[in-house]
Design goal:
Two copies of one chain form a homodimer.
Chain A: H1 17-30, H2 43-50, H3 54-66, E1 70-73, E2 77-80, E3 87-89, H4 96-99, H5 105-112, E4 117-127, H6 131-137, E5 145-154, E6 157-167, H7 168-171, H8 185-192, E7 197-207, H9 211-216, E8 225-234, E9 239-248, E10 252-259
Parallel strand pairs in A: 3-10
Antiparallel strand pairs in A: 1-2, 4-5, 5-6, 6-9, 7-8, 8-9
The structure holds a DNA duplex.
DNA sequence: CGGTACGGCTCGTCTAGACGACTAGGTGTC
DNA sequence: GACACCTAGTCGTCTAGACGAGCCGTACCG
């Protein structure tokens, strides 16, 4: 930090001062002159180096933060944002073979890489589905759904929230409507209930998090989320579950395999 | 706009003033009191309503912008960001049946919804691949690749940049190394060259755009991108192409189908 | 009638400062 | 030794202004 060499401003450039400062710092980060976790020069140091007002320096720092490159810590400094280890989600993660060892997909995967998985904030209700959910599940106006919401954590860090919607006609008074859905998770319960799973569809969007999502996932500013909606179909072609998932985008890489025909 | 009712500040709250103002405006947008394309109250109007300094109002507006909710237009005002029509990419989009009508996937899909597709900035080079690309293509140190870069537009709006890497041993001196790769695109050429395609893998990340990407895709602030890396394998199990794609995340929904076994 | 100039509105950049709150380390007291 | 306190350094919030630049409608002039 003390030995970081920052260029001077180019007074002939049309580029505003705060963008030039942001460019310098961004270049330092991208060139690894500043490494993840390392402290950037403090606001006072930048003010001294560039001889500009504090708001100008703060504006530059704010840009980097909104790009997800840095995080500020009150009273300590501004740091290059460390990247969490990435979880790779493969498209066969719901294959029956993975389920039959009695573990839900998330638990099995996470333990597989030596980390401690946990689940919290489990809530279960029965309610009238939104129009979108009703459409995906093929329900009519009078039908109701069991809603299972929960949050997944790895080593205590939240990485994903998920909300499942299952037609009440299937799930009511079963273990699916209990907080602990039992070994293998709700997909195992659905199969026991005679809904042998055939395939899933997944829709993936990416966007900036809503306020609640940023809080629930403890997201740093400038980190987008994956918004994933999965629908499970049984062999009769009936949609038996919709799962709405929000994931921190820098904790995940999604991976799929596509046939060529 | 003139009839938009904004609450007053809560002086008893610990929440900073600029966040309260951002909350009010965000709520107005989310409740559709302000609709996409509509103009927000001007800075002066907000200063008058809340009786705060201009920087405080600007700070609030900047938050909304970094969330991708608004866009500012110099000299005109701040507007609720209109959402572009969404393109849905299905997991069978590279299926042979779609290719055999002689059109590349992008062209066929886009015309299918009545919009005008175009492609520009086509560049072709031959070079030494990066370590990552070499690994994905299973190449050794001396091997080279043909690199095809291009940008896709819909009705003149850029939506996607793509860079394909094909082993030079396959593509050199073929139509793949020509700007116009011919009917059906490079996948059709690869099959003609005896590399009958078997399957693809896709890796999906989401993140904030780099500066160049934001420029090339004309992205509004606060809009993340999908970063998609697709590898094509022929029936001999050989990787024959890697395609590195960056897409505006609000122009796309990615859709996949997963088997249950 | 057509073009130009102007004024008023908008957001963009930048300054100079005040005060608050959090962190960490050192000092002093008990 | 344990604890409270102080202080310097950091970022967070907010004020009050200045000037610039883009957009647009209107009044004026040719």
């Amino acid at each position: 930090m003390g030995d970081l060499k920052l260029p001077s401003l180019d007074p002939t450039s049309d580029r505003p001062v705060f963008k030039q400062i942001a460019d310098h710092l961004r270049a330092a980060i991208e060139s690894k002159a500043l490494t993840p976790g390392e402290k950037l020069p403090s606001e006072s140091q930048l003010i001294g180096h560039y001889e500009v007002a504090r708001m100008t320096v703060r504006h530059a720092l704010q840009i980097l933060q909104s790009e997800g490159l840095t995080v500020a810590q009150h009273g300590k400094g501004v740091f290059v944002r460390p990247r969490p280890p990435v979880r790779r989600l493969a498209s066969d993660r719901f294959a029956r073979q993975h389920r039959e060892q009695g573990k839900a997909a998330f638990i099995a995967e996470t333990e597989g890489v030596g980390a401690k998985p946990s689940v919290d904030s489990i809530t279960i209700k029965e309610e009238k589905p939104s129009q979108d959910i009703a459409l995906r599940l093929g329900l009519s106006d009078a039908d109701r759904v069991v809603v299972r919401a929960r949050r997944y954590l790895i080593d205590g860090h939240p990485v994903e929230t998920a909300t499942s919607y299952i037609p009440a006609s299937i799930a009511r008074n079963t273990r699916i409507a209990e907080p602990n859905s039992g070994p293998g998770g709700i997909y195992a319960r659905l199969e026991e209930l005679g809904h042998r799973l055939d395939h899933f569809t997944e829709e993936i969007r990416a966007r900036m998090p809503l306020r609640d999502e940023a809080r629930a996932l403890r997201l740093a500013p400038g980190v987008p989320v994956f918004h994933l909606v999965r629908t499970a179909y049984d062999q009769a072609g009936r949609a038996v579950e919709v799962c709405d998932t929000v994931m921190s985008s820098d904790a995940y890489v999604l991976s799929y395999e596509l046939p060529a025909q």
